[in-house]
Amino acid sequence: MPRFISTYLYPQQSAAQQASDNSYRVITPSRQASRAIAARHQPLYDTATKALEQHGQVMAQPLQAQKLFRQTVQAVLQPADLIGTARALMPAVRSLLQSSSNLECDSDNLSTRATNLITLAQQYQAALHKDGCFDEGELYWRAAELNVDPQKTLIYGYFQPRQDELAWIDKLAADKSIVFLPICDTALFVEVQSSVDFLEKRGWSVTGDEITTHLAVGIELCQTFLQPAASVVEQPPINAEMISAYAYGTLDAESRGVLAQVKALLSADVPAREIAIIARDERAYAPKLIDTAWEYGLPLRALYSTPLLTTRLGNWIEQLLNVLDAGFPFEATAKLLSHPLCSNPDSGFWAVARSQHPEGFQQWRKIAKENLGLDLSALAQVNQTRRRDTWVDWWQRLLKTYDLRLRCARWARESIAFNALQKGLVELSKPEAETLAWAEFRQQLEDLLEKLSVPAQPGRGGVELHSPASVVGAQYSHVFVMGMAEGILPPSISNDSVLDFFERQQLRGLGVCLLSAIELFHQETLSFYYLLQTATHQITFSYSTLSDRSEQLPSAYLKRMGLQIGEPPEQPIASLEEMRRGYLRQPDKQAAEASDPVLTQAIRAFQVEERRESALSADEYDGIVGVPFDYRDWTFSVSQLTNLGQCPFKWFANKVLKLGSSAEADTELSPSLRGNLYHQVVELLVKAVQANPQLSLTDPDLLREKFLEAEREIDFPTLPAWEMRREDHLRTLLTVLRKPDFWPDGAEPVALERKFKGEWEGFKVTGRVDRIDKTPDGLVLIDYKTSSKLPRGLKDSNGKTSIDLQLQLYQDVAASEMFPGETVTAAQYFSLTKGKVLKLSDKAPQQELPMAIENCKTALNLGHYPVQPDVKRDACRYCDFDPVCRQGSRLTRKENHHGTD
Ligand code: SF4
Questions:
Q1: Residue 556 φ/ψ, nearest 5 degrees
Q2: What superkingdom heads the lineage (predicted)?
């Protein structure tokens, strides 16, 4: 009794009929295909691996294969980047192993690249065989060499079999077996026809019996699709109303449009398993679809494999490896501790961490223990050489210590990832007695993470996202095909970077058959053709006209099927978020939705934001709170009054709303830290010289001594390369100290860093004078500046920060409070960078100071603190409140009289 090849173009019904005869062992590539013919799922791959196992042959474990492959690449090519080269070449070598049962060929006329690749594949294969195993690429060839008992088999869904698959099918199929290889008399099926010819030569018989097939939507489309391009019929298909093609603006709109239709179907009690979403590149579409499906409350499953590294668990391990390698730096460790699989510290912890800025294992261990109750001790002493199994044991304990199994259990994908990792670690622990340094083990762990994979969005039930290839042979009543744009479906076919089409052609002459350009084109087209067959009731195509701001053209397949692209149907509101978005712009409907507190709040916030962005005058959300501030008991510093006079909101946010940033340890030499340090050094130096006139202000050793003392006194942080950078600062200060202006002849410092308090223009004020010199002409009050420019003052009537306040206060308040009755000759700024007095410009509008102070009073009396910085926005340069005031271009729309109104 012969074996049969069914070549009928629409095989599902026939296969289902045959499969109902329980005498067959049914083989299908996917669960979806087995469901379509009501059979148990068993893929060809499983039959081959099982047969090989029964004969004592084992497939190399992924890490073992990778190790041997890298060794072979090193021996054959000696590349500069071994890991990268091996990673790039592995797929091509695997394709070579799949393409031929025997790679022993004469490679004389091949390019060097092709010759190297063949040599690589041969030596890799030999190395595996020497170790008693084989690569997964040669699975079917090795299985086909076995002595197996053939069984009566039905093979459905392998409509474009490779040669190695055919060899194994031929081996395992007993008499009366049947394989479904649909063909048609067009060039598209030429490779399938070759497969049929191959089997016929092996004694299989073709049976082209057609059975009466229900004219489902997909089949009708298939018929149109196969017609020559010129003869595409204009008349609409019988099932026209069940076939649609839509153009959306963006991928987001397309995803929302498709998922809204899916939700409508589910609401109409269509079972989720009857609906499929198809995208040629699942990885590109899945993230947006998964996010939107979550918003819509839709169960969506994406079953394609994604590397374990892309999971939360993989990310946690990657971050931990970086932290261990870098010795617990602040940023990376903070990121690790904030990871969802880690301790989830609160803002209190971060306030402590920022103020202490821990670096290194010991500091982090202390702060984590004290503030999080988290013991990091397990992470100590990683730079060691240990037995392989001890390393693995160390990781197992680490996973336990941090309760990773439990934390991963919150997500289906993470749970699968955790189990996959556990399995992988078992593989990694062999051979147990081998000793590895941390660097070697780390590399192997990274390799493992790269090799392991998990389904992108696993779970039970739900609507599935698939690629065309993964639904071959399946059946769905409703199919949504996304991404029907040129270059996406079908994808453009381009040369492989490892073996181009010319080299593939040369290899074909030697019996190594890799896919040519035309075969790839046929493969893609047939995948789409089989995708059409999956739809029994309704099929909807869609694409987005814009992708990354580039225009996309509709797929040529749409024209080939004679479909008109239409406007998408009006989208129903499919989620609470969409409903809220809709009502935000329809305030008249608010009342009906008043019961939604989120919406009520959102509408309020939206209105506030609209007003803030408009030309309307500022309101209470923009600083006009209208609550008078009783400043009679408030003590103002110079900087407070300056802030009030530069941008009232800056003072309001800081002092009334108390939104100032939390204390954070310096990690760089900020202007304020540098200012503190310079002030301290100069004060210590002047004091020392005054106490001992034998000392010289310009003695470099004395300066160094006082510089180090100042660092200790202000608790100067550890800055990168500070030992070297300190020398620059010492040089700068020495140059300044040598300038005669720093300590003029005849001047005698009588006060250093002296505080003052007093009443001025109705304000209680306080401040500090850096130095007061007594000179023959009177007192000189000095304020040191580390900048080389004059400080910014209050706004003048032109909105410029040019009214100086500080020196005026020195003259009016400080001098009379500290040295009553003494003559004041000058109050001045001295630059510790330039070594000179910074003089106020003669054009400085000091006469406007009373007016500016009156404006400050008015702001306080009325409770008006508008966001009104100076015209050049110098006030914003070192302001912490930018995220709160949301200044930006909106301020140009607001009326502004620079506080003079
Ligand atoms: S960022 Fe500018 S506008 Fe905003 S509060 Fe600060 S100074 Fe005012």
A1: -65, -20
A2: Bacteria
Spans of all domains in the chain: 3-55+146-213, 58-140, 223-299+461-560, 308-457, 576-613, 631-885
Q: Are 674 and 786 in contact (CB under 8 A)?
A: yes
Q: How confident is the model over 306-330, as a mean pLDDT?
A: 93
Q: Residue 857 Cα, ligand 1 centroid: separation in angstroms?
A: 19
Cα-to-chain-centroid distance, residue 668: 27
- From the CB of 609, is ligand 1 less than 6 Å away? no
Judged by phi (left if over 0) then psi (alpha if -120 to 50, else beta), residue 870 lies in beta
618 Cβ closer than 6 Å to some ligand 1 atom: no
The pLDDT score that the predictor gives to residue 628 is: 95
The CATH class of 308-457 is: mainly alpha
Using CA positions, which residue lies closest to atom 7 of ligand 1? Answer: 876
Mean pLDDT for all residues in the chain: 91
Contacts of 767 (CB under 8 A, 6+ apart): 637, 638, 755, 756, 806, 809, 810, 813, 814
Is residue 799 within 8 A of residue 846, CB to CB? The reply is no
Atom of ligand 1 nearest to the CA of 650: 5
Q: Which of 649, 870, 872 to mutate to test the pocket of ligand 1 (most atoms within 8 A of CB)?
A: 649
Residue of 872, 885, 889 to test ligand 1 pocket, by largest number of atoms within 8 Å of CB: 885
Would you say the CATH fold of 631-885 matches that of 223-299+461-560? no
- The CATH number of domain 223-299+461-560, selected from 1.10.1060.10, 3.90.930.12, 3.40.50.300, 3.30.700.30: 3.40.50.300
Which H or E element spans position 95? helix 82-99
Nearest CA owner, ligand 1 atom 5: 650
Res 109: pLDDT = 78
What are the DSSP calls for 632-667, one per residue?
GGPEEPHHHHHHHHH-HHHHIIIIIS--PPPP---S
Q: What are phi and psi of 206, to 5 degrees?
A: -85, 130
Q: Is 880 in the pocket of ligand 1 (CB under 6 A)?
A: no
Ligand 1 center–CA 882 separation, angstroms? 6
Q: How far is CA 2 from the centre of its chain?
A: 57
CATH number of 3-55+146-213: 3.40.50
What pLDDT, on the 0 to 100 scale, is given for residue 235? 60
Domain 631-885: top CATH class: alpha beta
Is 237's pLDDT higher than 70? no
CA distance 274 to 477: 5
Determine if ligand 1 sits within 6 Å of the CB of residue 647: yes
Of 144-158, 365-379, 539-553, where does mean pLDDT reach its minimum? 365-379
Q: Is the CB of 649 under 6 A from ligand 1?
A: yes
